[in-house]
Write a structure and sequence with these properties.
2 domains; 48% helix; binds N-[oxo(pyridin-2-ylamino)acetyl]-beta-D-glucopyranosylamine; 755 residues; 33 helices; nine-stranded mixed beta sheet; globular
């Protein structure tokens, strides 16, 4: 036990630890972390990365920072000696609300890995006051309320730096806030977040509604404000330009302070554009370089050499394109530049499909990124291949050297060390702690796949994690889970392509089977975590279907002995940290070709879950790593799916009519049982959608899904030891999916930082 930690904390609290409140201890620990992390701030030489992103889904920071600074054990033990629990103190920290899904969490993992690898790389984003909405359930329906997460103690501190940003001809001041990002035994970088002093949380009315026109008061209130109307879409452009203009000014200032003459900007800065939300940074930098006296053509070259673009999706609706008149309104200063870029692009190709401004006067942000940055990357091997062969084939033919793959990764500090201490220490006992910095060392675990003692330990750890999750859910939502059951978890944004509705149909099927006297091989607990975008009607209907079914099951003792459906309210990073270590079966069931990568799939694997998935995104690479015996793959291939889309020959109703089990499950959506607790309008709409449209081809995969999942349930029940052996293989093979590996690849191929 370190005496000095006791003395340090006592000093910081100005009282005995045992008499300090959790709030006082939290404040003391924040100071401790801040002081220590400042010791790892190092000067920047050579090229520095700026990762610009609308989202940074960072999660709570205290424990992670303590781990990265090597203080965690000492602090935990010192507190315990004084009768205090670090877990209680963690509860003092509000959950940062700066992101939505995989794209934002990836940005957070990348910041951790950059700092861990001692690479100079900062984030640039927005300081949302309420970020993504808080989700709660009432009458089996999702409701949204604002998530006021900012407190005086927020680690993002205001600076005196402000940049002028012109929006619709009016000048606003973007204030810079800085949040230190400390790596594991690495350096401390910064997450730069911009905000407007005049933003006013009191303008929020019912739920999360507000006057979308009052930019001075609403600009940074919410992440992804409802864009189902024109004012909402304009607001997104206001936000995006505010972020990139302030960011670009920061980048130029920092580089000039380090001696850059702007002609050599690409030697000082690498800018990674995280999906299309920050794409306007390209014309904005060209504009700013022009103000510094650099000719247009040279500016275009400088910006191309500096910027790189990551694509995270092939879904057409997520590839941003804006009617030109939106940009004319919000950023008239950029339009002449975008027009010139479009003209250059048109000199390079006759293919109208590759234009920045199309014949309908719509501006394609991704097209601007690809023409005027030096790198375009996908986020998993399959995804990059689809970009090259289908979605962006025309661009790939034009710029084959720009295209590259960077398979996503996750930071093991948060997704193993922090969230699963029991598994971490067992791994450490077996193979030492080298895996914390070199994840490929996890392969050493393969030596233990026949060691029954180790396998039994792995099983005990999983069981304990399930009990902890059950306790947490009982406290939070009053749900009692059967911890002897197989835990299957699907947690991710709610989207039709991710196919939570397929899981819903399976659960209805199981329910009906049990009612008919066919009990499953093992009791099953099916857990969901997901938020639906507030204006995404069908997504909300799917949530309603799941919540309603959950009630039908829980009110039926005959079924609930065998089957439970738990929906975790307000799924976020902290919830994920509790759910993932408790999972047996990881549900990665997107329609093949649609999930660019997935990163939850990696987190579950690392924590010893087996994957039930389609050959989509990084599932393909997980399957390659663990081998077919250690994963449950089902469903159409991406080739088949792409073919059906091209031929437009998919007819959901044919499948509905041909398969009695499927028909029975879909019909049940509007059954008496469901209508007892559910709303007819929601359930009918969902049913109608499935039978008449089913854009993401749920029905053709239903049968294969049922068969594979029932097989998994049987394997789990019949041979627990073999199941543990297979989970150990998954853990051992997870090393490739460390974001340290991903970041090392970005650095080697695209950024060349510090050089
Ligand atoms: C992919 N979010 C995952 C992950 O690469 C992938 C976009 C627009 C508006 C609101 N949210 C978004 C995303 O597109 C997103 O999260 N994409 C995800 O990026 C990281 O692993 O497959 O869906």
């Amino acid at each position: 036990m370190s005496k000095s930690m006791k003395a340090t904390l006592t000093d910081l609290c100005q009282k005995e630890i045992s008499t300090a409140t959790d709030a006082e201890l939290y404040t003391a620990l924040l100071k401790l972390v801040h002081e220590k992390s400042q010791q790892h701030v190092k000067p920047v030489t050579g090229r520095k990365l700026y990762y610009i992103s609308a989202e940074f889904l960072i999660g709570k920071l205290l424990s992670n920072n303590l781990i990265n600074l090597g203080l965690y054990d000492d602090v935990r033990d010192t507190l315990a000696e004084a009768g205090k629990a670090l877990a209680d103190i963690e509860e003092q920290e509000p959950e940062p609300s700066l992101g939505n899904g995989g794209l934002g969490r990836l940005a957070a993992c990348f910041l951790d890995s950059l700092a861990t690898l001692s690479l100079p790389g900062d984030g640039v984003g927005l300081r949302y006051h309420c970020g993504l909405f808080h989700q709660n359930f009432k009458n089996n329906v999702q409701n949204e309320t604002p998530d006021f997460w900012l407190t005086d103690q927020c680690a993002a501190k205001a600076t005196d730096t402000v940049f002028p940003v012109s929006l619709a001809g009016k000048t606003y001041s973007a204030r810079l806030y800085k949040l230190p990002v400390t790596g594991y035994e690495g350096r401390t970088n910064t997450l730069n977040l911009f905000d407007l002093d005049t933003v006013d949380e009191s303008v929020i009315g019912d739920g999360i509604s507000f006057d979308k026109k009052d930019i001075a008061k609403n600009l940074t209130l919410f992440l992804y404000p409802d864009d189902s109307d024109e004012d909402g879409r304009l607001l997104r452009i206001y936000q995006q330009y505010f972020m990139v203009s302030a960011g670009a000014q920061l980048i130029l200032d920092e580089c000039m302070a380090r001696g850059c003459n702007l002609h050599d900007l690409a030697d000082y800065a690498a800018i990674q554009i995280n999906d299309t939300h920050p794409s306007m940074v390209i014309p904005e930098l060209i504009r700013l370089l022009g103000l510094h006296g650099i000719e247009f053509e040279e500016a275009v070259q400088i910006v191309t050499d500096t910027c790189a673009y990551t694509n995270h999706t092939i879904l057409a609706e997520a590839l941003e394109k804006w009617p030109r008149h939106y940009l004319d309104t919000v950023v008239p200063q950029l339009m002449p530049i975008i027009e010139k870029l479009d003209a250059i692009a048109k000199t390079r190709t006759d293919n109208a499909a590759l234009a920045i401004i199309d014949q309908n006067q719509v501006v394609h942000m991704a097209h601007m990124d690809i023409h005027f940055s030096h790198s375009t990357n996908g986020v998993a091997t399959l995804h990059t291949q689809i970009l090259k062969e289908s979605e962006l084939a025309g661009f790939y033919q034009m710029y084959p050297d720009k295209f590259n793959n960077k398979t996503n990764g996750i930071t093991f500090r948060r997704w193993l060390l922090k969230c699963n201490p029991a598994l971490t220490s067992e791994i450490e006992n077996l193979i030492g702690d080298g895996f914390k910095k070199d994840a490929s060392e996890l392969k050493k675990l393969l030596a233990y796949t026949d060691d029954t003692e180790v396998l039994s330990k792995i099983r005990t750890i999983k069981k304990d994690n399930k009990k902890q999750l059950a306790t947490w859910l009982a406290d939070k939502q009053g749900i009692r889970l059967n911890t002897d059951a197989l835990f299957s978890i699907q947690s991710k944004r709610l989207h039709e392509y991710k196919r939570q509705q397929l899981n819903l149909l399976f659960l209805i099927h199981e329910y009906l089977e049990i009612k008919a006297g066919h009990v499953p091989a093992t009791p099953l607990v099916s857990i969901f975590g997901a938020k639906a975008a507030p204006a995404y009607i069908i997504a909300k209907d799917i949530i309603h279907g799941l919540l309603t079914l959950s009630q039908v099951i829980s009110e039926d003792p005959q079924v609930s002995r065998w089957l439970q459906l738990a929906f975790v309210e307000n799924y976020n990073v902290s919830a994920a940290e509790k759910m993932i270590p408790a999972c047996d079966l990881s549900e990665q069931i997107s329609l093949a070709s649609k999930e660019a990568s997935g990163t939850g799939n990696m987190k579950f694997m690392l924590n010893g879950a087996l994957t039930l998935g389609t050959m989509d995104g990084a599932n393909v690479e997980i399957a390659e790593a663990v081998g077919n015996d250690n994963i449950y793959i089902f469903g159409q291939s991406s080739k088949q799916v792409i073919h059906h889309y091209a031929a437009a020959d998919y007819c959901a109703r044919d499948w509905y009519e041909a398969d009695p089990n499927l028909r029975r499950a879909i019909d049940f959506l509007t059954s008496e049982e469901m209508l007892k607790y559910g709303d007819e309008e929601h359930l009918k709409r969902l049913q109608h959608e499935l039978i008449n449209k089913d854009w993401f081809q749920t029905l053709p995969d239903f049968n294969a899904y049922v068969v594979r999942k029932e097989q998994a349930m049987k394997d789990y029940a019949v041979n627990p030891e073999d199941w543990s052996r297979r989970t150990l293989i998954n853990i051992a093979e997870a090393g490739f999916f460390s974001s340290d590996r991903t970041i090392a690849e970005y650095d080697q191929d695209i950024w060349h930082l510090g050089k």
